[in-house]
Write a structure and sequence with these properties.
By secondary structure, the protein is mainly α. It is 76% helix and 0% strand. The protein is globular and about 55 Å long.
Length: 220
């Protein structure tokens, strides 16, 4: 019932498709003008770029969901900051480290995890912000470390498993937000431009790092 109404929950599925459409259009344009001239681009980067884009399309709806209510109870806000910080940092770090090595993957994962963790965790004040920073920091390092440790042991299969588990966690998080906000009036509505801007920025940054960014000696 809530998904069918014109509320924050009703926008979640639409947000996923807006994010995916934006990212794939950006990727197609980049491929047409630049990436197709790079040797073995699809075999080398295609799998990890595809799942990075899918990851962003699941993370951004959760961020939009939190922003719709601005303020949430302390325990819920801490859980939100921790979950989004950890999952976004882990996924970003995992897929970038798979092509560039642990240092670049860790830095990128920590940056994404901390930014998204703080952006959502601040809904309950300083404790949520701290949870966002700590989980983003940890998630970025752990995601990058995991991918490098599995370079010679079913890395692609692990990427699929990691993505599925993260998707289940994020779906559960959105249900938690719904349960916590049934008695709370909506206070903010983001336009699709918010999702389009973030999807564009994340896709461009991920492509630039994977293809043109520095990489460790193991990936030369």
């Amino acid at each position: 019932k809530s998904l069918a109404e014109d509320g924050a929950e009703g926008e979640l599925v639409k947000t996923v498709f807006v994010s995916l459409a934006t990212s794939f259009v950006v990727l197609a344009i980049l491929y047409l003008f630049k990436l197709r001239y790079i040797e073995n681009f699809i075999p080398k980067y295609g799998f990890y770029l595809f799942f990075a884009i899918l990851s962003y399309s699941l993370i951004l709806p959760s961020i939009r969901h939190v922003r719709a209510y601005k303020e949430l109870p302390c325990m819920a806000g801490m859980m939100i900051g921790m979950t989004i910080g950890m999952i976004s940092g882990f996924l970003a770090g995992f897929f970038v480290a798979s092509t560039n090595g642990m240092f670049i993957g860790s830095v990128f994962g920590m940056l994404i995890g901390i930014v998204f963790g703080v952006l959502t965790g601040k809904c309950c004040g300083i404790m949520g912000v701290m949870e966002g920073i700590m989980s983003g920091f940890m998630g970025g390092l752990m995601g990058a470390m995991t991918s490098v440790m599995l370079l010679n042991d079913n890395l692609n299969a692990t990427g699929v498993i990691v993505f599925i588990i993260s998707a289940v966690i994020l779906i559960g998080l959105n249900y938690l937000i719904y349960k916590e906000t049934r008695e709370i009036e909506r206070r903010h509505k983001d336009s699709n431009l918010f999702i389009i801007s973030w999807s564009f920025a994340l896709t461009v940054a991920t492509v630039a790092l994977m293809v043109f960014g520095p990489r460790s000696a193991l990936f030369q």
